[in-house]
Amino acid sequence: MRVAAFQRLAIFDAVDKVADVLARDLAWADEQGIDLALFPECYLQGHSYKAATARRRALSLDDPALNTLVGRCALEKTTAIIGLFERRGESIYNSAIVVRAGRIDGVYAKAHPQESGCTPGTDFPVWTLGDWRFGINICADLRYPYTSTRLARNGAGLICNPINLMLRPRKAEKWHQPGISGLQICAKHTRCWVIASDVIGSNDDGWFSYGSSAIVDPNGVVVAKAKPHSEDVLVFDLPDRQPERGFDQKAPMIAT
């Protein structure tokens, strides 16, 4: 299975502009035979830790603007994972949608949101793509090993991690390498492949992101890593079939 992690410039409050970038990137991915394309956390509207901003930006899954965007993703081969702020009634979630053949095929909501006003998700769905199964953890979810454990126990061989490490300059520098290390710990703990997609750039508050997109094998080896401070695309061919070993039930647990 061919996967791709897109490291892209963060764009704020411009869904139409993001939609154009997504359409371009996904058309390219389809031409390249990409089976699964991963985009960053809250990529669609731009990330924020402020409750009022997240609420203003949030879209429901039946919003016409979102459905128009999704309809542009009616690709022959590529399935996409796209991060967004999602509205469900009065609740706001930090979510990622799975888009397949021009429709939303499911959604995962971040179990451990750091964003003010966001409701924690409680479900850990797994999707099938060819001979593989994949699930989603969003950014800080990986600090809590039970989140990836749930996916592995449900049969996932690939864990997709949309992230948004746009932080104050000192914190951005502090968390760049630990962000990669967290992917490696997750891979070794679950015996799954792990793929992460991050943003680059800065916001109006002077925060910025190096870009910590990477692909890690089940032994914790980083097989692909994006260039820092640069838009980049990581493409990697996983084995044709998901390894039978999957999650090691006897592996020591950090948390459950």
From TrEMBL:
Task: Tell me the domain of life.
Answer: Bacteria
Tell me which UniProt keywords the record has, alphabetically.
Hydrolase
Protein's UniProt keywords contain Hydrolase: yes
The record's SUPFAM superfamilies line, in alphabetical order, gives: Carbon-nitrogen hydrolase (SSF56317)
MF (Gene Ontology) = hydrolase activity
Domain CN hydrolase, by residue range, is: 1-240
- Report if keyword Lipid biosynthesis is assigned: no
Recorded hits in PROSITE patterns, A to Z, give: CN_HYDROLASE
- The protein depicted here goes by the name Carbon-nitrogen hydrolase family protein
